[in-house]
Specification:
The structure is a single chain. With about 280 residues, the chain is of the alpha+beta class. It folds into two domains: about 5-150, Fructose-1,6-Bisphosphatase, Chain A, domain 1; about 160-275, D-Maltodextrin-Binding Protein, domain 2 (3-Layer(aba) Sandwich), CATH 3.40.190. The chain is built from eight helices and 14 strands. The chain has helices spanning about 5-20, 45-60, 70-75, 100-105, 170-180, 195-200, 215-230, 255-265, and strands spanning about 35-40, 40-45, 65-70, 90-95, 110-115, 120-130, 135-140, 140-145, 150, 160-165, 185-190, 210, 230-235, 250-255. The strands form three sheets. It has a seven-stranded mixed β-sheet, sandwiched between helices. It has a five-stranded mixed β-sheet with strand order 11-10-12-14-13, with helices on both faces. A two-stranded antiparallel ribbon has the order 1-2. α3 links the parallel β3 (about 65-70) and β4. α1 (about 5-20) runs antiparallel to α2 (about 45-60) and α6 (about 195-200) packs parallel to α7. About 40% of the residues are buried.
Length: about 280
């Protein structure tokens, strides 16, 4: 039995959204936006405020737990290496996933959260703020959208699949080859927001996602959600994805068979070991 009340955590995320995010949607001031590593890698005051709030309140839910967030890691205030220690209980926070979309006034953004206990992701939450949709997953207990259980039942052939991919994160020397391989799928595009891409796969709206940069705040929440909904997630080396992984890439699919088909199509002729 979980010692965490998932609905209580979801309520905290909703309160954060109502207090810090929604009032700034399409109302951000210039001084509330800053670039980090590049012009598309943005941080806003909403990101900072949500993360700070969760840093204050989440440890009270699990005494001794630690909160690490995307912005704290970016500033150098936190050590991502703590995920290598299975004795630590860690909350992983992406305060506003899809920040560039948020700044641009698009709808694809949300709050992502995962709880890692004894080295594995036990709980995850994704809050689609504008859609007012809570996606909650617990290891071995299923995945839910606003209380409704999610079960992926649609398994399409590659030519009928909707896939998500952002080529600019891939090694440059294989970008064009992968771009060509993606023509085998029905359609492929990026939402520039992992929260929405994972939730679309978990609800059967999309079938596949291919990622090349494993930041835990982007992938731990969604990976558990898709797996608990019946999907299949594995790294490019075909091994399971864990909180300790920070290299190589990930394929997320509606089922293992679809994962295998996608892997064979995308990496045909590529020496995958070079990129692990």
């Amino acid at each position: 039995m979980s010692v965490i009340d998932p609905q209580h955590v979801a309520q905290i995320l909703e309160e954060c959204a109502n207090k810090y995010v929604l009032p700034r949607y399409k109302q951000l001031q210039e001084h509330e936006i800053a670039a980090k590593s590049g012009p598309r890698d943005l941080v806003t005051q909403a990101d900072i405020d949500v993360e700070a709030h969760l840093e204050r309140v989440l440890p009270d839910l699990l005494p001794g737990s630690i909160v690490i967030g995307e912005e704290g890691i970016s500033r150098g205030d936190m050590d991502i290496g703590i995920l290598q220690d299975p004795s630590q209980t860690v909350w992983i926070v992406d305060p506003v996933d899809g920040t560039h979309n948020f700044v641009s006034g698009r709808r694809e953004f949300g709050i992502m959260l995962a709880c890692v206990i004894e080295g594995e992701t036990r709980h995850s939450w994704i809050y689609d703020i504008l859609g007012d949709a809570h996606y909650i997953a617990e290891k071995g207990e299923g995945a839910y959208r606003n209380g409704e259980k999610l079960e992926i039942t649609e398994h399409r052939a590659p030519a009928e699949m909707t896939a998500h991919i952002n080529y600019r994160y891939f090694p440059r020397d294989i970008q064009e080859q992968i771009r060509g391989a993606m023509s085998a799928f029905g359609e492929s595009y990026s939402l520039s927001c992992a929260a929405h891409e994972y939730s679309r796969i978990a609800t059967g709206q999309s079938d596949l996602a291919l990622y090349s940069r494993l930041k835990p705040w982007d992938h731990l929440p969604g990976a558990l959600l898709v797996q608990e909904a019946g999907g299949y997630v594995a790294k490019w080396d075909e091994r399971a994805y864990t909180p300790r992984d920070d290299y190589a890439g990930l394929i997320v699919a509606s089922c293992e068979e679809s994962w295998r088909k996608a892997f064979n199509i995308i990496f045909q002729g590529i020496d995958i070991k070079k990129y692990l």
